[in-house]
Amino acid sequence: MAFYRGSSLSLQQSTRILPVISGSAKQSRAFCGNTRGFCKIYRVSASRIREGDTTHHGHGIVASPASSPEPPVVRKELESPPRQEHSPGSWVERWLPAAARPYALLARIDKPDAIWLYAWPCFWSIALAANKAELPDMKMLALFGFGTVILRGAACTMNDLLDRGIDKKVERTKSRPLASGALTAAQGFYFLVFQVLLWFGFLLQLNNRSLIMGASWLVLFFSYPLMKRLIHWPQAFLGFTVSCGVFIGSAAIKESLDYAVLLPMYFAGICWTLVYDTIYAHQDKKDDFKAGVKSTVITFGDNTKYWLSGFGAACVSSLALTGYNADLAWPYYPFLAAAAGHLAWQVSTVDLSNKSDCHMKFVSNKWFGAFLFGGILCGVLAK
């Protein structure tokens, strides 16, 4: 509503602007959207407003011209900031000393969801190695749980050391400790050495065959960042690497490996990794393309969902073969069906152009692994 010089207000108009406070006077100031000026509203008697007298000199509404026209105010919606990889409100920021925070963020211990993706192949094979109608070795499960935390941290540190130049160009990763300058490359290297020593401390708790396999496993993880520069299917190499856990977990329990059971599970793990890591990589597809990073996201292009559907079907089929060859009891298969449904839900509903949705679908894969582990556990117990 605009007010002009010399105009008078009705009782109805006045009461829309000035709150009436019984028995008292109120000093108010109202800005008028008209560029000719603003209205100064001085002391107005509440009783005069009720009587309709809005023109009384000294008690009415007087419009004074502005010294100069004011430009109209243009409201601009602020864009929401891009999702950063490290949340300022994480427990690392709240509880750890300032000197330790960059190292914790470098090892990604503030993001435990991805640790499950490293651990599940080990847990699956440990559960498969259990004796008929018996629970798996709980001590070995706990030991491998600790080991995968170390392994994942070391792999992330190595990845960030090699990719720190690329990470600076990617919106999601530019806040990482090495890319942002919170840690120097030398500090990152010394931390990596410390993590490798912890990893070998873990391997010393296993038998000799598992120790050799575990050392080789670490080399594969350290090679993964280079694959993003060399091949167009780095996600396949990651699957090849992560899924080796099915052999190491079984070797830690049994003297001999049952390849009829483990090879289909290994292949299923590769296909599963291709699904979840391709979804994950869609968060950075624009930046990766500019930086020249190779990825299945770029290779698959608009046909990504068709590829993911094929990998999902191959994964579930291989896991069914694993159950058959391992002679698992019938409870294994309802759990496998639940895992298959979860995989189908991911592929069919993921919005590959939405970073938040891609991240949510990626971290949900811990439940796929949990379904399968539950199926193996029940299938062994019900033999």
TrEMBL record:
EC number: 2.5.1.39
UniProt topology in membrane: Multi-pass membrane protein
Gene3D superfamilies: UbiA prenyltransferase
Regions that span the bilayer: 183-204, 210-227, 236-253, 259-280, 332-352, 364-382
Chain intervals for the UniProt region annotation (Disordered): 53-89
Catalytic reaction list: an all-trans-polyprenyl diphosphate + 4-hydroxybenzoate = a 4-hydroxy-3-(all-trans-polyprenyl)benzoate + diphosphate
InterPro entries linked: HB_polyprenyltransferase-like, Prenyltransferase, UbiA_prenyltransferase, UbiA_prenylTrfase_CS
GO molecular function: 4-hydroxybenzoate polyprenyltransferase activity
A GO CC term assigned to this protein in UniProt: mitochondrial inner membrane
Record pathway: Secondary metabolite biosynthesis; Cofactor biosynthesis; ubiquinone biosynthesis
Enzyme class, spelled out: transferase
Biased composition (Basic and acidic residues): 73-86
UniProt cofactor(s): Mg(2+)
Keywords, alphabetical: Isoprene biosynthesis, Membrane, Mitochondrion, Mitochondrion inner membrane, Transferase, Transmembrane, Transmembrane helix, Ubiquinone biosynthesis
GO biological process: isoprenoid biosynthetic process; ubiquinone biosynthetic process
Subcellular location per the Swiss-Prot or TrEMBL entry: Membrane; Mitochondrion inner membrane
NCBIfam families listed in its UniProt record: ubiA_proteo
Function (record text): Catalyzes the prenylation of para-hydroxybenzoate (PHB) with an all-trans polyprenyl group. Mediates the second step in the final reaction sequence of coenzyme Q (CoQ) biosynthesis, which is the condensation of the polyisoprenoid side chain with PHB, generating the first membrane-bound Q intermediate.
Family as reported in the entry's similarity comment: Belongs to the UbiA prenyltransferase family.
Protein name per the record: 4-hydroxybenzoate polyprenyltransferase, mitochondrial
